[in-house]
Every structure is written in C-alpha cells, then in structure tokens.
Amino acid sequence: MPLLSFPGISTLIAKGVYDAAFPLHDVSVSREVLFEEWARYSAFYKYQPIDLVRKYFGEKIGLYFAWLGVYTQLLIPASIVGIIVFGYGVATVDTNIPSLEMCDERLNFTMCPLCDGACDYWHLSTACGTARASHLFDNPATVFFAIFMSLWAVLFLEHWKRRQISLSFSWDLTGIEEDEEHPRPKYETILLEKRQRNTSAVLYTIHFLDIYHTLTNCQSIFFSLCCQFGLTFSAVFGVIIYRITISALMAMSPDPETKSNVRVTVTATAVIINLVVILILDEIYGTVALWLTELEIPKTETNFEERLILKAFLLKFMNAYAPIFYVAFFKGRFAGRPGSYVYVFNDYRMEECAPGGCLIELCVQLSIIMLGKQLIQNNIFEIGIPKLKKLIRTLKEKEPTQKEKDGERPPRQWNLDYALVPFEGLTPEYMEMIIQFGFVSLFVASFPLAPLFALLNNVIEIRLDARKFVTELRRPVAARAKDIGIWYNILSGMGKLSVIINAFVIAFTSDFIPRLVYQYMYSQTGTMHGFIDHTLSFFNVSNFKPGTAPHSSDHGDITVCRYKDYREPPWSSDAYQFSKQYWSVLSARLAFVILFQNLVMFLSLMVAWVIPDVPKTIVEQLKREKKLLVDLFLQEEKEKFQLIQTRPLFWTSLCPESLGSRLLRNIRLLEEWIFKQLDLILPRCYHLAVTYVML
Amino acid sequence: MPLLSFPGISTLIAKGVYDAAFPLHDVSVSREVLFEEWARYSAFYKYQPIDLVRKYFGEKIGLYFAWLGVYTQLLIPASIVGIIVFGYGVATVDTNIPSLEMCDERLNFTMCPLCDGACDYWHLSTACGTARASHLFDNPATVFFAIFMSLWAVLFLEHWKRRQISLSFSWDLTGIEEDEEHPRPKYETILLEKRQRNTSAVLYTIHFLDIYHTLTNCQSIFFSLCCQFGLTFSAVFGVIIYRITISALMAMSPDPETKSNVRVTVTATAVIINLVVILILDEIYGTVALWLTELEIPKTETNFEERLILKAFLLKFMNAYAPIFYVAFFKGRFAGRPGSYVYVFNDYRMEECAPGGCLIELCVQLSIIMLGKQLIQNNIFEIGIPKLKKLIRTLKEKEPTQKEKDGERPPRQWNLDYALVPFEGLTPEYMEMIIQFGFVSLFVASFPLAPLFALLNNVIEIRLDARKFVTELRRPVAARAKDIGIWYNILSGMGKLSVIINAFVIAFTSDFIPRLVYQYMYSQTGTMHGFIDHTLSFFNVSNFKPGTAPHSSDHGDITVCRYKDYREPPWSSDAYQFSKQYWSVLSARLAFVILFQNLVMFLSLMVAWVIPDVPKTIVEQLKREKKLLVDLFLQEEKEKFQLIQTRPLFWTSLCPESLGSRLLRNIRLLEEWIFKQLDLILPRCYHLAVTYVML
Predict the structure, then answer these.
(1) Distance from CA of A121 to the nearest CA of B (A)
(2) Nearest to A629 among B579, B591, B677 (CB)
(3) Residue B574 region, left (φ>0) first, then alpha (ψ -120 to 50), else beta?
(4) Pairing with B401, which of A71, B179, B440, B477 sits 20 to 30 Å away (CA)?
C-alpha cells in the first residue's frame, strides 16, 4: 500500500507484515513531462528541469541531479583544455628532441637485457613507439594542466556551493534545521532486547550501549578494514606476480612472434585482470561496508548513512586506485640495477617500466580502468542487472496474475508500481561519480583526456539515471535535504589530495624534471640534445652474476651495456653507486613538489576567497525581503495597536515585557528560553516599541 | 555630552559641533568590582570576570578579553613543553658529539679567514661557545616541538571557536544578524559633493563612485604598499650593510680587544638598531594604513575596519618579521666560498653565519626583537604615552577650571570622564597579540622559549589592558559582535604559514638534517663521530685571489684551510663544485619539508575534525530548549483554539492558508516572501495543524 513513511512502517516492513510501502508514480502530466524533457537521450544538450525533478522526487534527489549537472557542465571547459594540451603533445611530437633521439638508430644505444639468461641485449631505438606515445602525455603543457585542474576542482566546489545556496533559497530550504530523528528500528530492537535482559537501568543502558558497541566493534571494524585493505593489496600484488611470471615465461618461449609481443600482451591482460578484480571487489566491499556499519548499530538513519558512506568510500577508493598508485609511484623503483636485480620468490626479477617511462603505462592503466569501469558499470550494473531483476520479478508474479486475470480487473497504479525495482538510496550514484572525480582530478597530470571521457560518460549518465528514476524505479519517498552532506567533504578532501598526488606524478613519474635539470645544469648547448645519453648509465657485462648474462647474443661482442638510471660508471671509484646527477635530479624533483604544492594551495585559497559563497543576487534579494517584511510587520502592528484597548494580543503581551526583561535580566528560566528563541522576532518588537512611542 | 551614538552624532563631532560623545563610567558597584577583581596586578592568577566585563563594556570588548584569556591559558602547556625541550638541550649539551668535536682542540681544524686581508686563519675550537649554545636550541627535541606547536595552534583556534560559541550562547548573540549599516559620514560627504557637481545621475553616481575609486585608488594603494615594502626591505638591507661595514672596520683595527669582540658587538648593536627601526616604522605604518584606507572611501564602518586591519597587518607583519626572515633563510647563503666571495659595493664581503650555524643568530634576533618589542611597547606605548597625553590634557584644561572654581561646583561625572583618554578601538590591542602569536608560532622551531616569554608578557598584559579600560579610558560605546571577525582569519592564516616556515627552519636553518644524513649515510660507525670534519670543505690557499689572503698569519705555513660547505676538494677534477654530499643533503632537506608539511597538515585536519565546533553541553541545551518551546507553543495554541470561534487570531489566520499554499504554490509574490521568512514559525504551524486535526 502506498504510504508516507511514518515511524513504524519501516519496522513492519522489516518484520514482513507489509511487503512494501511506496508513494505512487504520478501518471498525470508530470511524469510525461519529465520523460520528454529530461529522461530521453535526445535531450542530452538541454539543461535539466531541476525544479520539476525536485517537485516529483523531493529535494534530496533534486540536489543530486543538480550536482551532477554542475559537475558535467564544468567538465566542458576542463575537457577543452585537456584536448588542447593533448593536441600540443601531438603537434610537438615530431620536433621533440628526446623522442627523436630515442628513435634515432644512428645513436645506437645497446641496452642491458630485460630478463635473465633468455633475453638478449637490445637497441633503444626499438622502443621508439612508446617514446613517441609518451610525449603525447608527458610534455610541459601537462604541468600547466595539472595546475589548471587543481584550480578547476576548487572552482567546481565553490561553484557548487553557490548553486546549492541558490537552490536552497528558491526551494525554501534556508530555514530547515535538522530535526531530532527517530532512532532506527534495528537500534530500538537491540535496545529492547538489552532492556529485557536487564530491566533495572534503562537509561544507563542506552548510554552504555553506545560505549559498549564503540569499544567492542572498534576492534572488529578496524580488523575487518585491515583485512579488506590486505585483500586489495594482495590482489594488486597477485597481478604483479602474474605480470612478472608471464613475461618471464613468454620471454623464454622459442617463438620470436610471441617474444616481440610480450609487453603488449602482458600489459593488456594484466590491466583487464585488474579491472575484473576491481569490479568484483567493488561489489564485495559494498556488502562488507554495509555489514560493518550494521555492526556499529548507529542510532539514526543519517548517522547510519554517513558511516556507511565513509567506509564504502574508503574501501572502494583504495580498490579503484591501488593498481594506479602502484604504477605511478612504485613500479620500476625497486627493480635494482644490472648485476644486482631484486628478485621475488628468488626466481623472478621485479618488473621495470617501459623504456619510454612509467607515465605511458600509468596512462594506459588509467584509461583502461576508467573507461572499462564506466562502460561495464553503466551497461551491466545500471542497465543489465535492473532489467534482469525486473524480469525475474515479473516471472515470479506471473502465476498469481494468471489466476487474477479471470476477474478481468485492469491493473491498478499500485500494482504497476509494485512491479518496479525499489529505490535503494543515492549512495551508489554518488559513489560512482566521486570515483570518477578521482580519475579526473587525482592523476590528471598523466592523462589529460580524462575530463573528456568523464564528460562523455556523464552526458549519458544523466539521462540514464533520469530514465531509471522515471521509468524503472518505484517512486522514492521524497526527502528534504539542505545539502549533499558528507559527499561535499569527500570531494573537498579529494581536491586537496589531488594537489599533492599531481605534484608527485609530475615530479617523479614523468620526465619533466630530469629534462629541465639536464637543460639548465648539464647541457653544453642549452638544448635537449644528448638528454637520452645523459639518462643512461653504463654497465660492464663482466659484472653480471653467473647465469644472468644472455645465453646467446645477436649483437656480437658486447662489453658495456646501458640502463636507465643515474649511477656511477663501472670505471669510477665507487662504481654503480648513485651519481651526483641522481642527487641533483632528486633535489630538483623534491623542490618542484614543494613549489607546486604550495603554489597551488595558495592559488586555491585565493580562488576560494575571491568567489563569495552566496551569490550577489541572493544577498540583495534577502535584503529586500527583510526590508519588506519589516515594513509589513510595522504596518500590521500599527493596525493592531488600534485594537489594543479592546483585547491584548499575542505580540503586545509579549514584547514590552521582553524588552524590559532584556534590560533587567531578572526573569525566570522559562521566559529566558522563550526570548532566546524569539530573537528573530525581537527586532520587530523593538520597531514596534519605537512605533508605540511615536504614536 | 554623554549620548548613545545614533546616525548624525559622529558627523557632528567630526564637524566640531560637539567636542565628544561618550557613555559615562558607572561609578557604582560595577566599576569598583571590575577594578578589584580584574584590573589589579595581584589578581593575575584569577580567571577574568568576563560576564562582568561584557556587561560593562559590551560584547566586542568582552570577546577581546575572552580571547586574550583563552590564548594566555593555552600558552601555559606550550610554555611547559618549551621549557622541557630547552631543558633537554641543556641536559644533553655535554654528551652531544658535534659540539664536543667543535670544542675539541686536538682536532685542530684550521678555518679560512673571515675577512679579506686583515683577518687571520683561525681554529674552529675558538667557536666552541656558540656551538654549545646552538645545541640548546638545535636538537632533535626541537623537531618534536615544532610539530607540537603547529598542532597547538590548531588546537588553540578550535578551542577558541568552542569558547566563542559558548559565549555567544550565554550572551544571547546567536540570533543577531548583521543589520544593514549606515554609510560612514565621510562616504556620504563625498557622495554629496559628487552629487552637487553632477546632479543628473545620483544612483548612477553611487555605483560609479565605487568603481571609480576602486580603479583609481587600486593603483595608488598598490604603489604605496610597494613603497612601504621597499622601505622595510631597505631598512633591513641598511642594517646588513651596517653589520658588514662595522665588522670589516673593526676587524682592521689594530686593538686585539676590539677584534675579539667583533661578533658580539656587531650582532648586539645591529639587533638593537633593527628593533628601533621596527618600532618607528610600526608607528609610521599605522598612519599609512589609515591614510590608504581613507583613500579607498569604504562605504561602512565594518568595511573600513576590515580593510584597515588587513593593510596594517600586512605592513606590520612584514616590518616585524623581515629581519628575522633574512637571518633564517638568506643570511650566509649568498656569501660565496673562499676564493670566490660575493661582494656588495665591490668592497665588502657578504656576511656569513656564526660557525655554530645560523640558528643561534636567529634565536638571538628573535628573542631580542620579541622581548624588546613587548617591553618597550608595554612600558612606553601603553603606559607612558597615555599618561603623557593625560598630563597634557589636564595642563590644557587647567586655566578654564581655575576660573570655574569660583563657582565651587564639584566636578560632575562627565567632567571627570571627559578628562580621560578617548577609546580608539581594539585594533592596536589585537595587532600586538597577533604579532606576538607570530613569534610564538612562526619561528618556534628556533626558539622554544618563545611561548614562555609570551605567557609572562600576557599575564601582565591582561591586567594592564584591564586597568587601562577601567581607569584611563573613557567608557567605550558598547558594541555587539558575534565573533572576533577578520582576526580569526588572520590567526588561521598564520597557523597555516607557520607549518611551512617551521619546516624550512628545521630543514635549512638548523643542522638537524645534515646530522641525520651523516649518521645514516656516511658515518662508518653509525655514530656522529666525524660529523664536523664531514661538514667542512677544503680550500687550497694558493687559490685565494690576489690581495685577499691574510697579510700575516700566526699559524705558520698553511697550505689548506677549511670552510663550512659541501664542495669538492681542490684535488678533485671539478674542484670547488658542489659535491655529491651537497646534493644528497639538499634532497634530504627537501624531503623533510614535504614530509613535515604534509604530516602536520594532515594531523591538523584530524585535530580540527575530531574536536566538534559546538560543545556537547550546548548542543543538548539547544535541543532541550527547542523541545520546551515546541511544547509551550502547542499548549498555547491549543488554548487559543478554544477561542477560535470568537475571533480569528494572527496565527490561525496565517497558518492553514500557508500550509495550503505550500502545496499549491499559486500564491502571490508578497505572500511568498512572507512565508519564506516565516519558515521558522511554520513547523509550529504544522504542529498546530496536527493539533487541530486531533481536536
């Protein structure tokens, strides 16, 4: 039966007395209009009819779509700048000296083998492709773009703040205060059980329940979260092991065709495994977070939601980004050097980055995970599964309806709506968008096209969600909300995190700093010529550990091979130690991080400071309203004073006394309480008193 | 005449129609009690009677003293930790290997001369004293203390936020909104002049005035601020020149007595000159900031005050800290190296830091400026000058009173109060404390006793200010204020700045990082033995430029001298270039800055997040109040409903209609305005409706 939720109904549903309680869809004009103007894909270029959405679904859902709209809208400039930055990369790839040098076969750098025994020496020019691809994403414009996107994130938050205030003004939400919520049914049940066991001290129990659960569950939650973290890390580590072993096995295969495709095959399959693992764990983590939050027995629904969101966010964030963090900051940094490689399980060498730098791998990883996650989540989880659920539901219902058909009654609206999927909260929708926001902001320095992909996804996402809400879900119970709640804090936290992560990506993952250092400190000509030579260290092949040197070589008699690192040459007194260049480049990288972080933080503060939180039009409107209201009240009170002789009114009985009491402060407690609450009314009383004196 | 300020009186005073307008001092009990309980030095250990202060002087001044009280109270733990940290330095000075090594005469490091020609080589062990003193402030505990103080600053702000909310609750300030202020008389005058010149477009002019002044004055203000900055920097630079020249001159003097005291004499006199310059410029800058703000013609008094404070703060902050910044981050870094010194005016070598490190000089500079500024400002500016002013005033007044004495009338309260000094706002009081807060937080890593000195000063300062307010100033017009306004933002900004500055002080000014790097990277034994040797580079005396080698030496035949820097020795292939050690130490320093900054920022966020802004007691009290109020209203409305037949009341006529209109949204514009404003009342109406239905 359609019912407005009042305390009790949720308990009854939970106990199985009722099957469901939901408001009916409005089959009149509203739903039609919403479908026509909002839920069709062909309306993608239009602004959303937010006021209509709010009227139909309530403020909470209205705010979600408004937020999604603002986000999508602001992705447009970000995408454009991203395309320009990418275009700059494309345009300069043929004039970029480092990638030209890498492709130049005349320079003939003989590189040390990529695996022990089976692999041969190789020429750097064979990695020409990745070097050129790398330049598309790793060029000076990327640094500018990272700064731009950090400011963009601040701008987005500020813009949303303003929009939120405008909405809450026009939706009449300014005055709502959080009313005391009813305790959740679950909480009450547990309290009841406790009370039955120990009837003496109920009030004590309520308090004790909080502390008891906090203490006992803190442990289990902490432990469980650690387990989940462990699970994710072992998944990431598993994929690493997969990559290492498969590369090693494929390298050993005698087929030259297999050998040449090693890197492509391994990277592609590994990323896909990563993606699948992420998607599976995502679902598991959703359940785990729910279970953990149930364990805590939060008192109210809001409390429950906030804790659930925080936990689910932590788990899903880590799940989605752990492999990317690995590629960005750890891959290739613990591989050791020729003659002293790092081995896992005593047999397999730790993996290194592609010769073009880790950035291109980061870029591949990021784009595949982002695109894959969005496509699969959109198609399977948001379209496929609901459809499937609906199908199952209709199949189940078929038998009784068959019998009922004899009565020939046309299906009523509640029967139609009952067949729809129940609404399960906005958390998954927000979560998806927040994780996407992470892709757009956190690692944007390595993948300037991320905003574009996000934009394309969101244009579809809005209509997809709209369609789901209008046609596939039961109408949710309308809920008021002043703001988007904890999501704003999460967004703002991610914005802050993105500054430092982008600083590290530019400084450590990209080759931006080594290039600058080479140009201004080491280059004889002041140009980039010779940069590749400068980044490669020498290795004397006689220093290979027994059995690790190539078994056979097509390159003739090699005495010295090169590898990418800043180390002393074999003929130096402290051979293979980090060279002076290493330390100077490291200093430059760290200095860049400090400079970038503080500059961007300062600029962000300035942006947030310059943009006022409340739009000017609203400030003025509020002022005008206040004035009008005061005038109106004065007028009204004046009229009422004419009647003062006949009957004391509410105002008049209250005001003069309160004025006096404010001066004397000798009133009783209760009166004080009233007067404090009436503070808003008192200025009017004051005016009234003035009018009174003037009359 | 004592008058409450209403629009017009300030204009009349400004035009000289009246001489002054002020509320009279209350000679009854209150002032006596305030003096006894608050304004006497012997009450220094007592809590301030803040409620009494607020009652006598108004909320704005009450908040200042409450803030000062919270700040002083929180300085107590900071001082204690500071003393412990200093105590740790004192306790370990005799076991500290680097300072023992510096004092060890057997090690016999022959250092390069400190000036050209006139100075001789010298033994490092002669700088034993400064090395030992340096250890008192530059030890591992200092790092801990810097982190502690950064968190302390956050804690202080959070604590104050809570206190402010408690106060605004108990002082009944929760509901006050900023009322529309009257324009300042000055602004109105200028508007009037403009209007007379161009009568046609008045409204246009108002708008135009804003833009016009913004545009024309922006230039002049920017220019003027630049001038002031230039003035400060030239003052600092002047002192540097003074130091360089005087040291050079004294070093050349034949008297050995003079020679040995060079450093002490020069440092002491230079710091005193710095101090005097700061005090003089401080007064000038106060006037300049006022003049600049007048130029802008801000519309309202609040606006005026905020702009004035911001400007005055910028100027005074820079003035007070410029010499300290110089010593912390610039001194000794541009001095060059033996054989290639940096010269100013072609003659004088840039100054270097003392052999014990720059930190000890920073410490001396900091303590003298801090103590001197406080003592002089307290004694001269806050006690001396007001007394002097009063004396002048009474001398001036004497003649007319002589004549009046014939009438033999006893002086009335307004005559007595008129003789007092007029109140000139809280800005100077706040400014003094904020600059002190800077000394306590910004450079605390170099001077752990700063909180102690601040505490001692403030204990006196509170009573001094109290005495001034109670006995020496005319009673200020009471003003309401919700919070301490822009000062909170300035404090919070300083807290943020202090994190990065302390990170740099520890990383670059102290020897903490080089010591760590030596211990874990270079030391053969894993101890600090040999650290001093490691920090000193070699210089071949034959590489001195002609005329710069010592004219005569007591040290016999020297071929190699040492200097403090990480450079390649003369026998290396790239002699005197920065060595690998230099770059590795630099990397470690920068890495420390990143680590420290992000760790402390993270911890600060956590602290701010964990401490709720509103104290729990107040949250509960508010809840209880709300409940009582709703109950009361329900009760009252129920009673009124009994009378509903006889006469329609204000509430009943309004509410049902509004309920309907909320659903229909077909009401007229004016009605909507009213209802929005009445949002606070509507929930009650709702309850009313419920009651109505139940009846």
Answers:
(1) 31
(2) B677
(3) beta
(4) B477
